[in-house]
Amino acid sequence: MSCVGYARVSTHDQDAAAQEAELRAAGAQRVFVDYAQSSRRTDRPEWEACLDYLRSGDTLLVRRLDRIAGSDTMALEVIRDLEKRGVNIRSLTEPVIDTTSPMGRALFGIVAVFAQLRVDTIRENTRLGLAHARAQGRVGGRPTVMTSERLEAAQKLRESALSYAAIGRALGVGKSTVQRALARADR
């Protein structure tokens, strides 16, 4: 059973020495450090090496959860995966995240439930908002540049056997814009 640290900085300009020192002072025997890596990526080289190194009974020590995951859901997935492997996790700045104790595991479970509730609520509100907008005749996305005049001109130019690219150049729009507009008009 060992204590393994993980540190990460987002840019080459940042220095991970302070994180590494904190982790070592807290008991990490080995520290993996990623430089210029986004927390939203799961394929960080040192993160992958750290995951390979961890064994059942080990504790992963981080300064903050945002060092290992770029979102609540991502953090929960990482913590659950580590828990399945028998690896504990402890955060230096978020004492509620300490799966080495029964209270820490219980609090983590509560935090996980609320994080999932937040994700589900956002998803449901988004779905309801989009349905409401559609019911009022609004659609999402950028407004089309193909006005009725441009569409009419494109249809006439297409009848004269011009290519989509040529029509697009003549109307000042892209080839794919012309193709989509004409396909919609044909339907």
What does this structure look like?
The protein is α/β, with parallel strands linked by helices and 187 residues long. It folds into two domains: 99 residues, 3-Layer(aba) Sandwich (Rossmann fold), CATH 3.40.50.1390; 39 residues. It contains seven helices and four strands; from the N terminus they run E-H-E-H-E-H-E-H-H-H-H. Helix 1 links the parallel strand 1 and strand 2. The mean pLDDT is 87.
- The CATH superfamily of the largest domain bears the name Resolvase, N-terminal catalytic domain
CATH architecture heading of the largest domain: 3-Layer(aba) Sandwich
Shape: elongated
Parts with pLDDT < 50 across at least 5 consecutive residues: none
One letter per element, helices H and strands E, the order comes to EHEHEHEHHHH
Major beta-sheet overview: 4 strands, parallel
CATH topology of the largest domain: Rossmann fold
Rounded Rg: 26 Å
Domain count, please report it: 2
Spatial order of the strands forming the largest sheet: 2-1-3-4
Termini separation: 66 Å
Helicity range of the residues?
A: 40-55%
What's the tally of helices? 7
Structural class of the helices, strands and pairings? alpha/beta
- What is the CATH C-level name of the largest domain? Alpha Beta
